[in-house]
Design goal:
The protein has seven helices and nine strands, in the order E-H-H-E-E-E-H-E-H-E-H-E-H-E-E-H. With about 230 residues, the chain is of the alpha/beta class. The chain folds into two domains: about 180 residues, Alpha/beta knot (3-Layer(aba) Sandwich); about 40 residues. The strands form three sheets. It has a five-stranded parallel sheet, sandwiched between helices. The chain has a two-stranded antiparallel ribbon with strand order 3-4. Strands 8-9 form a two-stranded antiparallel ribbon. Helix 4 crosses helix 6. The longest helix has 17 residues. The chain is elongated and about 70 Å long.
Length: about 230
């Protein structure tokens, strides 16, 4: 699976993508991450891509055309595996999905991640900044507004990383075992490990006895209850 990220701030991703499971998934070629900066598609000599909003209001709005060109480039690469200026540049294939990150979008869930990993080989994520992106890009491309939660962030980089992480987990081979998918098995929100007992400020803290019983049926029943 390839994630194509439209963002002004590629460097914001480097730390997270360079660690742990996601890093290994990239190194093992289970997933790929490609970046497209709208500034690279600006016709302004200073690479400016923001302007004041029509109708007034605070802040600046990212212009449509540089983003349109960035998305078209991403679609081209997802269709051919390399850059192309062909007629198909603005027509994503059935294996490509475009996601527009928005606080007012559809709630992102594990089910959404699982479905996306199953249906698509390429996911284009449009990550906005400032007061947003000129809405006319939605008249050119078919895309789905998606939100990671009922709150507003400074930009779309953090939500994009959440989508990458959650969807990548569903890609075969990214996790060491299919059982590592907590959402697909009975898993308690509380977990324990050695030692069985530890002391802090003269008080002892024990692992729940049920987990030491060896009775797997009762342990699963306990986990079900904790999950609720």
């Amino acid at each position: 699976m390839t994630f194509h990220i439209i963002t002004l701030f590629e460097d914001a991703f480097s730390s997270y993508l360079g660690e742990s499971i996601i890093k290994r998934a990239i190194e093992d070629k289970k997933i790929r991450i490609k970046f497209y900066n709208p500034r690279d598609f600006s016709e302004d000599k200073w690479r400016r891509i923001d302007q004041k909003p029509y109708g007034g209001g605070p802040g600046m709005v990212i212009q449509a055309l540089p983003v349109v060109k960035a998305i078209a480039k991403a679609i081209s690469k997802s269709s051919t595996g390399r850059a192309s200026d062909g007629a198909g540049a603005k027509n994503p294939t059935k294996s490509t999905k475009i996601i527009f990150l928005s606080p007012s979008g559809k709630q992102f869930t594990n089910d959404y991640a699982k479905s996306s990993a199953k249906k698509y080989k390429n996911i284009i994520i449009v990550s906005g900044r400032y007061e947003g992106i000129d809405a006319r890009i939605k008249k050119i491309f078919k895309m789905e507004d998606v939100s990671v939660g009922p709150f507003v962030l400074t930009g779309g980089e953090l939500p994009a990383m959440i989508l990458i992480d959650c969807i990548a987990r569903q890609v075969k081979g990214v996790l060491g075992s299919a059982q590592s998918l907590e959402e697909s098995r009975i898993a308690s929100p509380d977990v324990y490990t050695r030692p069985e007992v530890f002391t802090f400020k003269n008080k002892k803290y024990h692992v729940p006895k049920i987990l030491l019983s060896g009775n797997h049926a009762k342990i699963e029943e306990w986990r079900k209850g904790r999950k609720k």
